[in-house]
């Protein structure tokens, strides 16, 4: 839950990911750019006719297929509101000021700033060669 809407961040699989993850984790550092952001998940699953149902335990997003959403009382929750509801007081892997700033910047500035922060993070950790996708909704 580090990346707020409308940031779509995803880290595709790569053969060097696990060794890099283990190296830094053994040193007590968690690489923040793993998995995908809530907005990336909403976009990806939305293309497959799944809608956001909610977030559980502050970090697990639940999606349901549109064909059964009504049986559960509906879906299509607002990803911005879901993020706001769980953002404060949860474990995040990026400095909180970055996240607060990213939620309020104009889209073009947001993408520039986020890309700068994320590529610097990757450079410092020696993982710049690993694929990283970042866009905005």
Kindly describe this structure.
It is a single chain. This protein is α+β, with helices and mostly antiparallel strands. Helix content is 39%, strand content 15%. The protein is built from five helices and four strands, in the order βααββαααβ. The chain has helices at 17-26, 38-46, 79-87, 96-102, 107-125, and strands at 7-10, 50-56, 60-65, 133-136. The strands form two sheets. A two-stranded antiparallel ribbon has the order 1-4. It has a two-stranded antiparallel ribbon with strand order 2-3. A hairpin with a 3-residue loop joins strand 2 (50-56) and strand 3 (60-65). It is globular, with a radius of gyration of 16 Å. The two termini are 16 Å apart. The mean pLDDT is 86.
Show the helix and strand layout:
Blueprint (H helix, E strand, L loop, with lengths): L6 E4 L6 H10 L11 H9 L3 E7 L3 E6 L13 H9 L8 H7 L4 H19 L7 E4 L1
Antiparallel strand pairs: 1-4, 2-3
What is this entry, summarized?
Helix content is about 40%, strand content about 15%. The chain is of the alpha+beta class and about 140 residues long.
Strand order of the largest sheet: 1-4
- Share in helix: 25-40%
In the predicted model, the low-confidence regions spanning at least 5 consecutive residues are: none
Main β-sheet description: 2 strands, antiparallel
Q: What assembly state would you assign to the polypeptide chains in this entry?
A: single chain
Q: Whole-number radius of gyration?
A: 16 Å
Strand coverage percent: 15-25%
């Amino acid at each position: 839950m580090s990346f707020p809407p409308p940031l779509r961040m995803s880290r595709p699989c790569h053969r060097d990911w696990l060794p890099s993850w283990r190296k830094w984790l053994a040193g007590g550092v968690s690489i923040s750019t793993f998995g995908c952001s809530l907005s990336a998940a909403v976009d990806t699953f939305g293309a497959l006719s799944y809608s956001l149902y909610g977030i559980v335990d502050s970090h697990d997003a639940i999606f349901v297929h549109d064909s059964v959403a009504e049986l559960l009382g509906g879906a299509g929750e607002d990803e911005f509101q879901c993020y706001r509801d769980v953002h404060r007081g949860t474990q995040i892997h990026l400095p909180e000021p970055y996240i607060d700033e990213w939620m309020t910047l104009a889209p073009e500035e947001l993408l520039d700033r986020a890309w700068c922060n994320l590529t610097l993070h990757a450079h410092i950790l020696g993982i710049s060669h690993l694929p990283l996708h970042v866009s905005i909704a």
